[in-house]
Specification:
Order of helices and strands of chain A: HHHHHHH
Mean pLDDT of chain B: 79
Radius of gyration of chain B: 25 Å
CATH architecture of the largest domain in chain B: Beta Barrel
CATH topology of the largest domain in chain B: Thrombin, subunit H
Strand content of chain B: 25-35%
Number of domains of chain B: 2
CATH superfamily of the largest domain in chain B: Rod shape-determining protein MreC, domain 1
CATH class of the largest domain in chain B: Mainly Beta
Number of strands of chain A: 0
Largest sheet of chain A: none
Helix content of chain B: 25-40%
Radius of gyration of chain A: 16 Å
Oligomer: heterodimer
Largest sheet of chain B: 6 strands, antiparallel, barrel
Shape of chain B: globular
Distance between the termini of chain A: 11 Å
Structural class of chain B: alpha+beta
Number of helices of chain A: 7
Order of helices and strands of chain B: HHHHEEEEEEEEEEEE
Mean pLDDT of chain A: 81
Helix content of chain A: over 70%
Strand order of the largest sheet of chain B: 1-2-5-4-3-12
Strand content of chain A: under 5%
Low-confidence stretches of chain A: 1-5
């Protein structure tokens, strides 16, 4: 009984990440040329949250393949997203093991550190590949992702707590 | 338990290997290695069609209200066109002189050599955006004769360029992409400039390398300039909109209006010759 409920949550969590990868393609139908991914990165938030809370599908191999899918869709250097996803995953798991989960503030700061490392990695890869980029975009995106974490956290906690309650009933 | 808490333990070997694989991929991608490119092309094709298949039902459901609105609008427009056709018929019958004049004009048009481009029609499978790129994937690739640099047109306006060609799909970047650089001619004086996409503001374009003494007017049209074998001269790009007529700010105070909405980019034409 418990296992069935847990798997259901894991599949939904994975569904969230896949939807976020296909986010623009789907949500373009709603609004005119709005590119919300410019201001924050939902994928980083989801990967950190689900890895930190140890959801089953959020491990190295699925994240590696999802990263390749994301690179294939967005046209980023092949392998870059996998690298970043795994970096965020690894930092999140490490922070989980040192018991950061009890205080939200600590979790939030830890999230900031993990995405900061991710953006540094993006910067390094783009720099060495000679791709054109704007420094400000990276900074704005980092800040946007960092400040949206509490909202995402409340939303995801609410959904998964609700689902657990329904499952228990 | 202790092994879990340590950063450099045996369990991290897998992470290390995956990192090496990822960096290997990035390296092979950057040097355009042939076998890797072919494999990547197959993966890109598969991902593009799979993503299209996954998002298709959702898109259709979401687009349903718009589709109904458009159908109603088209029915109205069709009736208007029919009424206009009737009016034209009446007028031509009433005025034989005009009819003769029209025939002369028709002969003149048929004698003129109109400029024709060879195009390939393609369907946009996915619009792929992230914080750095602003691109789309179409369902035509090298099999259909597409090449890197081919201009992408919608409603006679340039909307982007092909940047990556796979076997069955291709990636194009919108003019608003940070990597987009298009040589253009602006206004009546045909000032040469480079049209550059801005990464910060959506749908914002800017003109770089404009001559110092250039003066842009409201409504000035932007055309493409020629790059031999890549870009044809004279493709419409957009229009200059002057928001403020203040003389001091004449040079910089403008925006560029593109005559398409990104939502409408469902089918495009790619200029191949």
């Amino acid at each position: 009984m418990f296992r069935a409920k847990k798997n259901y949550n894991n599949i939904i969590a994975l569904g969230f990440l896949i939807t976020s990868i296909l986010f623009n393609s789907i949500f373009n139908e709603f609004s005119l040329s709005a590119n919300l991914n410019k201001y924050f990165n939902i994928q980083f938030l989801l990967i950190y949250f689900f890895s930190f809370n140890r959801f089953i599908f959020f491990s190295i191999i699925p994240l590696f393949f999802l990263g390749l899918v994301n690179d294939s869709i967005t046209g980023s250097p092949f392998g870059m997203s996998s690298c970043i996803y795994i970096l965020i995953y690894k930092i999140a798991v490490y922070q989980n093991t040192i018991k950061l989960r009890s205080i939200f503030k600590a979790e939030w700061i830890a999230f900031g550190i993990s995405i900061f490392a991710a953006y540094i990695l993006i910067f390094i890869i783009y720099f060495f590949m000679g791709n054109i980029y704007d420094f400000r975009v990276l900074i704005y995106n980092f800040l946007g992702t960092f400040f949206i974490y509490p909202i995402g956290w409340i939303f995801l906690k609410y959904i998964f707590l609700k689902m657990e309650t329904v499952g228990n009933e | 338990m202790q092994a879990d808490n340590s950063w450099f333990d045996k369990s991290n070997l897998r992470v290390f290997i995956v990192f090496i694989v990822c960096f290997g991929f990035i390296y092979l991608d950057s040097i355009n290695q042939k076998i890797f490119n072919k494999t990547k092309s197959i993966i890109n094709d598969a991902v593009a069609y799979a993503s299209y298949g996954v998002t298709y039902p959702v898109k259709k459901i979401v687009a349903l209200p718009n589709f109904i609105k458009e159908t109603i609008k088209l029915t109205d427009q069709h009736q208007q066109i029919k009424a206009l056709e009737n009016q034209i018929e009446e007028l031509t019958q009433q005025n034989k002189f005009l009819k003769k004049d029209f025939k002369k004009f028709e002969t003149f048009l048929s004698e003129e050599n109109s400029v024709k481009f060879e195009t390939i029609k393609a369907k946009v499978l996915i619009e792929a955006k992230n914080f750095i790129s602003d691109s789309f994937i179409i369902n035509k690739g090298s099999e259909s004769g597409l090449k890197i640099g081919n201009p992408v047109i919608k409603n006679n306006y340039l909307i982007g360029q092909i940047t990556e060609v796979n076997q069955k799909t291709s990636r194009g970047i919108f003019l608003t992409d940070v990597n987009s650089r298009i040589p253009v001619l602006v206004g009546e004086n045909l000032y040469q400039a480079i049209l550059i996409g801005s990464p910060l503001v959506t749908s914002k374009l800017s003109l770089e390398f404009l001559p110092k003494n250039s003066e842009l007017k409201n409504g000035d049209i932007i055309y493409t300039s020629e790059i031999e074998g890549v870009l044809k001269k004279g493709i419409l790009v957009g229009t200059i909109i002057k928001s403020n007529e203040n003389e001091k700010n004449m040079k910089n105070d403008y925006s560029i209006k593109q005559n398409y909405e990104k939502l409408e980019v469902d089918y495009v034409s790619v200029l191949v010759k």
